Structure formats: C-alpha cells, structure tokens
Amino acid sequence: MSVAARCPGEVRGVRRAPASIGVLALQGAFREHRLALERVGAHATEVRRPAHLEGLDGLIIPGGESTTIGKLLQAYGLDEAIQGFAASGGALWGTCAGAIAVASVIEGQPQQPRLGLLEVRVARNGYGRQVASFEADVRVEGWDAPFRAVFIRAPRITGVGAGVRVLAVYDDQPVAVGDEATLATVFHPELTGDDRWHQAFVERCLGTRAARRANASAETRTA
Ligand code: GLN
C-alpha cells in the first residue's frame, strides 16, 4: 500500500492540509458520505447554498431522487454555482441520483434538470423495477480486490463520451466512469463501510487543488 493510501494527509513525509469536501445536502444519502469522508481524513461539510461551495476542493452529489435534487438545485441557484465550481477546477462526484444529475443526457427525459458536467448517457432505473436493488462485486480498474457495490434503483450508463474513462464494470457495463474533473458511480459506495472510493476521491481533490493553485499563481505572474 502506498504512503498516500495509508495516510491521505501525507505524501513523502510532507504534510498536506486535508481535502475540503462538501456533500450536497438537499435530499438523499448525504450523512453517510460525510461520515465516510471523515473516516478517510477529509474535512467534510454540508452544502445547501451557493456560498457553501467557497473554499471547497470537491463536492459529492449523493443518491436520492434525481428529479427532486435537480429541482432543488435550480430553486437554490446551486445549478449555476456548481457549474461555476466545476469550471474553476473543483472536483465533482455524483453517486446514483447524483450520477444522473451530472450526466449530459438522461434517456427519455430531456426536460429533467441536470448539470450536464460529464459526457455520459444514463437511463434512470436502468436495472429494471423488479430487481431494483441488489448487491454485486464490481471490478475496479487498478484495484486488487473487487468492490461490493450496493445498487438501489440505479441508473444504467448507456453511453460514454470520448474523454470519459470507464473505471468499473458490472455485467459488462460501466458502473463507474470519470473524466479529469468529474466522477460518477451508479451504486452507493457510502453504504458499505469500504471507503476506497472516498479515499480515491480525496486523492482526486488533492490533485485538482494542486492544479488550481498552480493555475492561480501562473495567472498572478502574468497579470
Ligand atoms: N432511481 C433514482 C432516480 O432516478 C436514483 C436512485 C438512487 O439514487 N438510489 O433518481
């Protein structure tokens, strides 16, 4: 196990400030995400207003009901605020309904409010209503042991854009995908007690924070 994986705040003996990660807390499974983030050493906060995004390295959009989450995002002006946060280099992670919220295309629901931050097509409740919820081991790129994933009326990823990588597969279909800035998992990683996805997101957030700071100081030098 690498030093970074053992101790997220420390790389090569140099202490880094913990990642500051917000969890959208309008509706759905946000408490479990906050607890998982705290277990892996991140500073976790709940986001209910645009001002709560200030100073964050990353944001998790949890599972729940994607139409409700989308409407509440609009009602609080959080849709544009989150798009701005992403444009400024903030890391995003949508789980289940959150994966629907970040997607660019929702099959058969062109009017459903969404952020459109990740070039993927999703089908809501895409694993059928009969066996709506189930657990399965999924293979994750670069991990030795599979991840026991909990699917709850999960969306199915039916298409991925050219710049989007498939990170985990179940039943020959992508169940976790991401580009440089945005991650989407159709299962609920916060419900298993296995914190490897949260650990990986913390590492992403620390990486994007370093990139944002480098950009900011380059801009100051050229100003
Ligand atoms: N089926 C829900 C939706 O389409 C998502 C379910 C979940 O987040 N667990 O919004």
What can you see in these coordinates?
- The chain has one domain (3-222): Class I glutamine amidotransferase (GATase) domain (Rossmann fold), CATH 3.40.50.880.
- It is globular and about 55 Å long.
- A nine-stranded mixed β-sheet has the order 4-3-5-6-14-13-12-9-10. A three-stranded mixed β-sheet has the order 7-8-11. The protein has a two-stranded antiparallel sheet with strand order 1-2.
- With 223 residues, it is an alpha/beta fold.
- The chain has helices spanning 3-6, 30-39, 66-75, 78-87, 97-102, 196-222, and strands spanning 10-11, 14-15, 20-24, 43-47, 58-61, 91-95, 103-106, 118-123, 133-140, 147-152, 156-160, 165-170, 173-178, 182-185.
- It has six helices and 14 strands.
- The longest helix is centred in the last third of the chain and has 27 residues, at 196-222.
- It binds glutamine.
- Glutamine is lined by residues 63-66, 96-97, 100, 124-125, 152-153.
Which residues sit in consecutive blocks of at least 5 with pLDDT less than 50?
Answer: 1-7
CATH H-level superfamily title: Class I glutamine amidotransferase (GATase) domain
Mean pLDDT: 92
> Could you say which small molecules are bound to this protein?
glutamine
Give me the number of helical elements. Answer: 6
Number of strands: 14
Helix content: 25-40%
Neighbour order of strands in the largest sheet: 4-3-5-6-14-13-12-9-10
Largest beta-sheet details: 9 strands, mixed
CATH level-3 fold name: Rossmann fold
**Overall radius of gyration:** 17 Å
User: Approximately what portion of the residues adopt beta-strand conformation?
Assistant: 25-35%
Order of helices and strands: HEEEHEEHHEHEEEEEEEEH
Oligomer: single chain
Measured between the Cα atoms of the first and last residue, the distance is: 42 Å
CATH class: Alpha Beta
The outline comes out as globular
At CATH level 2, the architecture is 3-Layer(aba) Sandwich
